[in-house]
Write a structure and sequence with these properties.
This protein has twelve helices and eight strands. It is an alpha/beta fold.
Length: 280
């Protein structure tokens, strides 16, 4: 007998802006899909940066998570195929900012909405907003795992401590139960050998690697700082696109390829047909 289909929901979360959540969500989603996992990228941020990266311009009236949770829209009609085979996206629109009232009454609404899509996918990757909002709580409540991108800096380290304590406050009531799969150091100042260039950088790396400090393991990847990341976004390039691996941000993309390899063991391979909306 074959295994029961399993859908893993991975939340990319941190309260601090500029930590690389969207870059991480976009490339992990693409990496999962290119590894044969039917994947849905879910934009949970009303700024819609992930939506603009993955999809052609969409109508502002397009269905998003708010339309599903509040308006009762069928989730299946809200997803769109991307240019990556096996990767669909659930977009965000400015209306997503109005979802808080509904979530105040029931933090399980996001989990229930995404649950209706579980049979279609092996993985869902949630790009969360840079805030400790009701939407963040509800999305984390729906998750099976959490990856926390953190800038490899003193500011990033301090922000992580605050997020760790905030997250812990939801554990006793089992509102958020997903384990933290790891902390991802981003925007690292690396030398040509891939090592931290400065003493401060090395101290921050060591602090991030200290479980007593972070409460989670440091993932075995350092994502370097590169100005070329903006080119990836503007040209809508992702892990696996030849131009992404040949451009000025190629070492960033290569780092995400290694990250995906380290996460794939937690995401069982596809057990059924491709997602209905997935590009073939």
């Amino acid at each position: 007998m074959g295994r029961e289909p399993v859908t893993v929901i991975l939340a990319i979360a941190n309260q601090n802006g500029g930590a690389g959540k969207t870059v991480t969500a976009a490339n992990v989603s693409a990496g999962f899909a290119r590894a044969g996992r039917r994947t849905l990228a879910v934009d949970c941020d009303a700024q819609a940066d992930l939506t603009r990266w993955l999809l052609d311009p969409i109508d502002q009236d397009a269905a998003d998570l708010e339309a599903i949770v509040v308006g009762g829209v069928d989730p299946a009609v809200a997803v769109h195929p991307t240019h990556v085979a096996g990767l669909d996206a659930l977009p965000a629109t400015p209306r997503l900012a109005h979802i808080a009232r509904a979530l105040a009454a029931d933090t399980t609404l996001v989990a229930r909405a995404l649950g209706r899509l579980r049979p279609r996918y092996d993985a869902m990757v949630l790009d969360l907003p840079s805030s400790l909002s009701r939407l963040t709580v509800s999305a984390l409540a729906a998750a099976d795992g959490i990856v926390i991108p953190v800038t490899a800096s003193v500011v990033g380290l301090h922000g992580l401590a605050g997020f760790r304590d905030w997250l812990a406050s939801f554990r006793p009531g089992r509102i958020i139960t997903a384990p933290v799969w790891g902390v991802l150091a981003t925007q690292a100042d690396l030398d040509q050998q891939g090592r931290m260039r400065t003493q401060v950088g090395r101290e921050v790396r060591d602090a991030l690697a200290d479980f007593r400090t972070t409460g989670a393991r440091l993932l075995p990847v350092l994502v370097p700082y590169r100005v070329g990341v903006d080119d990836l976004v503007s040209q809508r390039l992702l892990l696996g696109d030849p131009a992404a691996h040949a451009g000025s941000a190629r070492d960033v993309v290569d780092a995400y390829a290694r990250l995906v390899d380290s996460l794939l063991e937690r995401v069982p391979p596809a057990a059924g047909p491709p997602a209905a909306g997935a590009t073939q």
